[in-house]
Amino acid sequence: MSQELRVAAYAVCVREGRILLARWVARDGTKRWTLPGGGMDHGEDPLDTVVREVAEETGYDAEMTALLGLDSMRVLRPRRGRVGAGSDFHSLRIVYEGRITGGELRPEADGSTDLAAWHALDAVPALERVALVDIGIDLWRERPAVGRVNGHHPDPPSVNG
Fold first, then answer.
1. Beta 113-120 vs 18-25: how paired, if at all?
2. What is the pLDDT of residues 24-55, one digit of tens each?
3. DSSP 8-state symbol, 137
4. Residue 147 and residue 151: Cα distance in Å, rounded?
5. What pLDDT was estimated at residue 77?
6. How far apart, in Å, do the first and last CA atoms of the chain sit?
7. Where exactly are the structural domains of the chain?
8. What is the DSSP string of 32-83?
């Protein structure tokens, strides 16, 4: 089984009781809301990553005001086709608190998201969303000293069951 590590940085931007989210489009066409952010390029600083990703996905300029924490997620992926043993995918997600400083809200062009919008915090539970949204909100609310919220780290799930 191959091992794959992806490091990414995300922003929790909240103002006036609303959170900024981007709608992620999966390869199968499924659409779910997520925090603006994404994968680090080799050699890129995580702060530069999250600022770049917020701009790409939402049109906004942002500055990060605090490091909220880290989220570590593993997924066991089945093999593709008849050859190979699958992969053990590990995602390390760095979560910051961000503040919008300029720009205008707009969707990403030719990226992994197709829409950006502000959502009332109390309306988030009704949204089709990835788990990272809840993790980010919990980190933002609780600000745990160790940078990790309990209850979000089950054993690594397998995509095929």
1. antiparallel
2. 999 999 999 999 999 999 999 999 999 999 99
3. H
4. 13
5. 82
6. 17
7. 2-142
8. EEE-SEEEPPTT--HHHHHHHHHHHHHSEEEEEEEEEEEEEEEEEEPPPTTS
**Are 86 and 74 spatial neighbours (Cβ–Cβ below 8 Å)?**
no
Region 81-104: what's the mean pLDDT? 90
**Residue 84 has what pLDDT?**
66
Degrees to nearest 5, angle at CA 37 with 71 and 152: 25
Q: Which amino acid is at 38?
A: G
- Alpha-carbon gap, residue 121 to 117, rounded angstroms: 12
What is the structure's pLDDT at 86?
83
The set of residues, in sequence order, having a beta carbon less than 8 Å from that of 81 and lying 6+ positions away, is none
Nearest to 113 by CA among 14, 17, 63, 39: 39
- Res. 156 pLDDT band, cuts 50 70 90: very low
Q: Is the pLDDT of residue 116 over 60?
A: yes
DSSP 104: -
Please state which CATH class domain 2-142 belongs to: alpha beta
Is 140 exposed, middle or buried (CB count within 10 Å of its CB: 0-12, 13-18, 19+)? buried
Beta-carbon count within 10 A of 59 CB = 16
Neighbour tally for 105: CB within 10 Å: 13
